[in-house]
Amino acid sequence: MSGRGRQRVDPARVAALDVLRAVRVEDGYTNLVLPAVLAQHGLGGRDAAFVTELAAGTIRRRATYDAVLAACIDRPLRKVESAVLDALRLGTHQLLGMRVPAHAAISTTVDLVRAKVSHGAGGFANAVLRKVSARDLDGWLAAVAPDAGSDPHGHLAVAESHPRWVVDALAEAVGEDDVAALLAADNVPPRVTLVARPGRASRDELPGAPTPYSPYGVTLDGGDPAGVPAVADGRAGVQDEGSQLVALALANAAVTGRDERWVDLCAGPGGKAALLAALAAERGAALTGVELHHHRARLVARAAAAGPGLAGVVQADATRAPFADASADRILLDAPCTGLGALRRRPEARWRRTPGDLAELVTLQRALLAEAARVLRPGGALLYATCSPVLAETAEVVTAILDAHPQLRLDDVRGSLPAVPDAEGPLPGTVQLWPHRHGTDAMFLALLRRE
Asked: Which keywords appear in this protein's UniProt record, sorted alphabetically (predicted)?
C-alpha cells in the first residue's frame, strides 16, 4: 500500500473500525471501548460524535445491515473476511442510517478496506456498497425482511435488529401491541442521566432537565459528565433513572422495628450502592456492599466512599453471603441477568446473549434470592430487581422463591414509586419500567417480606 493511499484513510472511520474489532474480538463493551479508541486516535468534538454514532449505530443495527449485505454478496457472510465485513457494515450504516452522501460513504469505506486489508478487497467493497446504495432503508426492508403479516416477529428481528429469540421473549413480556415500540426504543441511544447523591449534592447544582420520576436525577443535553464539578467530586454520578428508582423503591419501603443495617448483595459496579449509602446515611443507617469480583468491589468502594453511609464492601459470593440469618433490615438484590432491558446503552449485548445464558442466569437468580431471604429479618424489606423484563428472570423467579419459601410473601412495591404511571409488572404489586413508556432501562422490581 502506498503512503499516498494510507493518507487518504479517514481517522474517524479507522477509529470506528477499531471499536467494532474490539467489541467482536475482545468482547469489549461499546461504551467502554469508545473513550480509549478516541483517545488513541486523538479525536474529539464532532469527530468523536461521528465515531460514536458510526460504531454504536453499526453494532445496534447489525441484523438489518447483514440482511442487506447478504442480498448484495454472492456467498454467505461467514465466508467474508471479518475486517472486510466490519467495514461493509460501517459503510452500510453510513448509506442507510446516517446523512453521509453516498459517494463519501462508499469511497471512504473502500479506502479503509484497501488500507486495512488489500487493494482487491477494496474493489470487492466498492462493488457491494454500490449495490447497497441502490435503495434506501425502507426499500431494503421491503426486500429482505420477512412479511410482517405472516411472520411479525421475523419481520421485527430484521427491521428492528434484534435476535429472533430476543424478540420472542420481549414480546411475551410487554405484549404484542407494544413490542415494536419497545424494540424501536432499544435502537435510540439514551441521553446521559446524572444523579445527585442526597446529603452530598442537590439536583439544583446539576446541569440538565429534571428527571420525571426520580427527585435526584437530571438528563443532560450534551457535554462530558466528567466536567460537572459534583460528578468529578463523587457527590453525583452517572446513573439511569430506572436504576435510581430501584434504590428509591427499597429506601421508601416500610419496615417495622430497627432500620440500621442495609445490604446490597450484588453491588458492582456501585451506582445503586452509592445512592443507597447516601439515603442510609440520612437515616443513621449504613450499607454493606457485597461483590464477587475484586475489580468491581473496588468500583463499589470508590463510588460509595465519598460520603457517609457505607459500612464497607465485602468481596464474597452472594450465594453464600457472609451474614447471619435474619440480620439485615433492607436488602437490595439487583441480580445478574441477561441485560435485555438495557439494550439502548449496551447494543452489543443483544448479539452476545443466548437462550443458554438465560437458563444459567435463572438458576443463579434463584440461588441468590434464596440467600437474600435467609439474611432478611422479619419486618424488613427485600427488593429483587433485574435489568431485564424477560418473564423467566422476573415473574418466574419470584414465583419459584415464593413456592419454595412459605415464610416469604410478595408485597406491593408500587406504593414506593407512586409517581410512576403505567408500570404494572407481571405479578400483582410488582413494577416493570420500559424504555418506550418511561424513558428508562426496563427494570423489574419486586418487594418481598419475611413473615
From this structure: Methyltransferase, RNA-binding, S-adenosyl-L-methionine, Transferase
270 is in an annotated binding site: yes
269 known ligand binder: yes
Q: pLDDT tens digits for 194-234? A: 999 999 999 999 999 999 999 999 999 888 898 999 999 99
Beta bridge mates, 431: 424, 445
pLDDT tens digits for range 74-99: 999 999 999 999 999 999 999 999 99
Set 14, 387, 390, 423: catalytic member: 387
Residue 57 known to bind ligand: no
Does residue 154 contact residue 146 with C-beta atoms inside 8 Å? Answer: yes
Radius of gyration over alpha carbons of the chain, in Å? 24
Q: Which domain holds residue 428?
A: 193-450
Number of domains in the chain: 3
DSSP 229-294: HHHHTTSEEE--HHHHHHHHHHHHS---S---EEEETT-TT-HHHHHHHHHHHHTT-EEEEEESSH
Q: Is the pLDDT of residue 3 over 60?
A: no
Taking Cα atoms as reference points, which of 385, 396, 331, 405 lies closest to residue 358? 396
In a domain, 144, yes or no: no
387 assigned to active site: yes
Cis? peptide before 76, omega within 30° of 0:
no
Is 336 in the same domain as 432? Answer: yes
Helix 119-132 / helix 102-116 crossing angle, nearest 10 deg? 160
- Grid-cell match 442521566, residue found: 193
Residue 275 lies in a domain: yes
